[in-house]
């Protein structure tokens, strides 16, 4: 039986991969694929903090889909319902509150970091990001409703700040950074999004809710795995791999520069997204 990984061991693995003190890093992770750890997700968070040090900032996706009428989760949960049943279901959907709403499907590491003291979270009701470290407030301070993951979002600021992306036990299909490349295409297709948010006004003793809609780029991660496989074969001008790959705990991890990866994603999208 494999012994539980310690935060010290995971920190060594992260440093061997190339994570450095002072780094700003956007982390996507799967605790299950990392393997058994001494204290679950807390061991991973401690290792990340040790690897980037007190001057580094850790960012995680804290996306929410359970409050949306336009998400796959909503379509799955309402499949086969009558119109009356759907109306009743909509009345039970929680309004997004950046202070309290849990993330959906982002993993236990991201969810633990979201809840930690000092963590800051952006206010977008669908694609919020949470950050811990000296750059947290700066990175998450504004997140326009009609800019899921574009230049005006925290992801755009991460790109400007020279952040790196860490895929910790997950594949490129989870690489949020690629979405910024979609915004940089000449004419990205738009779509409508609908969701419910908490508006702070008490109704019958419970927090009030408000339905909002907005138009933004139609996000599509269906080809991110193919894009990532292509990116992994790319080399920098100096001949090094764009993507650094290694083991962290029992899982495969990848470390890549956010800005360069987005630029290369735009190049790939222009060639392969012809529809």
Radius of gyration: 19 Å
N- and C-termini, Cα separation? 49 Å
Strand tally is 9
How many DSSP H or I helices?
Answer: 11
Largest sheet: 7 strands, mixed
In percent, how much strand structure appears in the residues? 15-25%
Judged by helices, strands and strand pairing, the structural class is alpha+beta
Low-confidence runs of at least 5 consecutive residues: none
- What share of the residues lie within helices? 25-40%
Task: Please state how the strands of the largest beta sheet are arranged side by side.
Answer: 3-4-2-1-5-9-8
Order of helices and strands: HEHHEHHHEEHHEHEEHEEH
Number of spatially distinct domains: 1
Shape type:
globular
Average pLDDT over all residues: 94
Mind explaining what this structure looks like?
It is built from eleven helices and nine strands. The chain has one domain (7-64, 103-188, 221-272). A seven-stranded mixed sheet has the order 3-4-2-1-5-9-8, sandwiched between helices. The chain has a two-stranded antiparallel ribbon with strand order 6-7. A hairpin with a 7-residue loop joins strand 3 and strand 4. With 275 residues, it is α+β, with helices and mostly antiparallel strands. Helix 1 (7-17) crosses helix 3, helix 3 (41-52) packs across helix 6 (108-115) and helix 9 packs across helix 11 (258-272). The N and C termini lie far apart (49 Å). 34% of the residues lie in helices and 22% in strands.
């Amino acid at each position: 039986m494999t012994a539980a990984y310690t935060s010290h061991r995971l920190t060594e693995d992260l440093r061997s991969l190339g994570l450095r003190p002072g780094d700003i890093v956007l982390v996507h992770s799967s605790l299950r694929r990392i393997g058994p750890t001494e204290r679950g997700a807390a061991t991973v968070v401690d290792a990340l903090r040790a690897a980037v040090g007190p001057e580094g900032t850790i960012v995680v996706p804290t996306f929410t889909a359970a409050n949306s009428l336009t998400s796959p989760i909503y379509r799955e949960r309402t499949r086969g319902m009558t119109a009356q049943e759907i109306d009743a279901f909509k009345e039970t959907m929680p309004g997004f509150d950046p202070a309290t709403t849990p993330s959906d499907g982002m993993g236990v590491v991201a969810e633990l970091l979201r809840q930690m003291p000092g963590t800051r979270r952006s206010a977008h009701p669908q694609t919020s990001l949470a950050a811990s470290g000296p750059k947290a407030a700066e990175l998450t301070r504004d997140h326009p409703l009609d800019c899921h993951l574009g230049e005006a979002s925290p992801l755009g600021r991460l790109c400007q700040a020279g952040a790196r992306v860490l895929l910790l036990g997950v594949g490129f299909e989870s690489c949020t950074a690629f979405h910024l490349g979609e915004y940089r295409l000449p004419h990205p297709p738009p779509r409508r999004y609908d969701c419910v948010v908490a508006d702070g006004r008490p109704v019958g003793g419970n927090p009030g809710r408000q339905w909002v809609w907005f138009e933004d780029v139609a996000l599509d991660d269906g080809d991110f795995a193919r894009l990532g496989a292509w990116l992994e074969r790319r080399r920098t001008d100096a001949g090094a791999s764009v993507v650094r790959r290694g083991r962290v705990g029992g899982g495969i991890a990848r470390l890549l520069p956010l800005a360069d990866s987005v630029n290369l994603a735009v190049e790939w999208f222009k060639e392969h997204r012809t529809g």
